[in-house]
Amino acid sequence: MFEMIPTMRMRNSCFFEATVAEGVSGFCHYNYMLLPVGYGDPDACYHRLMNGVAMWDVAAQRQVEITGPDAARLTQILAPRDMSKCVVNQGKYVAICNHAGTIINDPIILKLAEDRFWLSIADSNMLFWSRAIAAERGLKASITEPDVSPLAVQGPQAENVVAHLLGDWVRELKYFWFKPAEIEGIPMMVARSGWSKQGGFELYLMDESKGTQLWNLVREAGKGWDIGPGYPDACERIESGLISWGGDSDDTTNPFEIGMGKYVDLDVPDEVIGIQALREIKQNGVRRHNLGLVLDEGAPLTASHRYWYPIMVDGQKIGDMTNGVFSRKLQRNIGFALVATRYQNGDRVELHKDNQVIKGTLTNLPF
Ligand code: THG
Fold first, then answer.
1. Sheet order of strands, 63-67 included
2. Cβ–ligand 1 contact at 290 (below 6 Å)
3. What percent of the chain has pLDDT over 90?
4. Diameter of the chain by CA atoms?
5. Ligand 1: which of 120, 148, 149, 240 to mutate, judged by most atoms within 8 Å of the beta carbon?
6. Which of 27, 17, 49 minimizes the C-alpha distance to 233?
7. Do residues 149 and 15 touch, judged by C-beta distance below 8 A?
8. Is 205 in the pocket of ligand 1 (CB under 6 A)?
9. Which of helix, strand or coil describes residue 142?
10. What's residue 113's pLDDT?
11. Burial of 231: CB neighbours in 10 Å, binned 0-12, 13-18, 19+
């Protein structure tokens, strides 16, 4: 056993105590926070997500709040997606790129008011990036981290639980849309969203002193549906074809390579960061694309690994398996294959992993 030494640079989730009480057994790091990724029984957590309802501490999906007279313009400059179509109380999934068209984060951008936005970020520092861009462009915008902690409620029964808690109006919420709500005076934004394809909501708690109280209220409301703890599940998200920025992308990955081209609008203003590069990439075509890989055999892959593994054909490297997992649904090892574009659905390939050669087939996504 070892001890985690708290420092000023590691912020605790306000649901931390609640997850410890639930028996959290593993964390990963995300945005300088701890993100729970285990409660001792991964099969039970997966089953809950697929058939019932699970609650996830995803406070590590930190918010970057942009306000002020130039907030809308700055948000558009950061986002190579037409934000003029986003109305108040709506969210959009965005591939934020650098000047080379490389994805540097894939947040959900929530529009709270005409001059107020949250970037609900993946694991890279968008506070620094947004401030630097605002300063370089001379924009009047204030960029801060608000007191916001998302709690995800995911699974086919999530809607029943959240409706029980907040009222039937939540059933009408559209994907990525959100509304302010309150339970016992606890303020939050309620969105239909979450990093799974099993359906669900995210409660963006807006008072970090109420973390344990909110956790317990949701748990109580979910009793009739057998609610329990869970986490962004590697098996479910790979089966569903959900990409993880920083795991399935590298230092040169652009949106068109990994199925995010549909979230890019090339006709946004020229001042949008990366848009010239993205137009060129679109015109010239991509070198690689992301497919599924189904392996013939091999020991069950554990949920995560630290390296990409080479995919070979006839002794030539054609790409990498970025993440792989033993799929409970398919009872096979599956993974994402970022490979040269001339390799397609149905092609036979070899995965070279830990001195083993495992044969497999490329497939379209989702599996
Ligand atoms: N919720 C919140 N913040 C987040 C995440 C989240 N920040 C980090 C990370 N997740 C951002 N990444 C994603 C990736 C995919 C989706 C959401 C956030 C997602 N995608 C759907 C899909 O790909 O099918 C729908 C996208 C669409 O059609 O617009 O939901 O989970 N708060």
1. 90-93, 108-113, 116-120, 63-67, 142-144
2. no
3. 93
4. 64
5. 120
6. 49
7. yes
8. no
9. strand
10. 98
11. buried
Spatial separation of the C-alpha atoms in residues 297 and 12, rounded to whole Å: 41
Ligand 1, atom nearest to 245 Cα? 12
In 75-206, at which residue ranges do the beta strands (DSSP E only) sit? 90-93, 96-97, 103-105, 108-113, 116-120, 142-144, 149-154, 178-183, 186-191, 200-205
Please check whether residue 93 is in contact with residue 55, taking contact to mean a CB–CB distance below 8 angstroms: no
Residues, the chain, total? 367
Could you tell me if the CB of 183 is within 6 A of ligand 1? no
Cα(26) to centroid of ligand 1, in Å? 23
Pocket test for ligand 1, best of 148, 197, 242, 258 (most atoms within 8 A of CB): 242
Residue among 75, 98, 122, 117 nearest 269 (CA):
75
Closest by Cα among 274, 271, 361 to 321:
361
Sorting pLDDT into bands at 50, 70 and 90, what band is 2?
A: confident
In this predicted model, what pLDDT tens digit does every residue of 64-81 receive, in sequence order? 999 999 999 999 999 999
The model's pLDDT over 239-257, given as tens digits with 9 standing for 90+, comes to: 999 999 999 999 999 999 9
Nearest residue by C-alpha to atom 32 in ligand 1: 120
Q: Which two tokens stand for residue 355?
A: 């001195």
Question: What's the whole-model pTM score?
Answer: 0.96
122-138 residue pLDDT tens: 999 999 999 999 999 99
Say if residue 154 is exposed, middle or buried (CB neighbours under 10 Å; 0-12, 13-18, 19+). buried
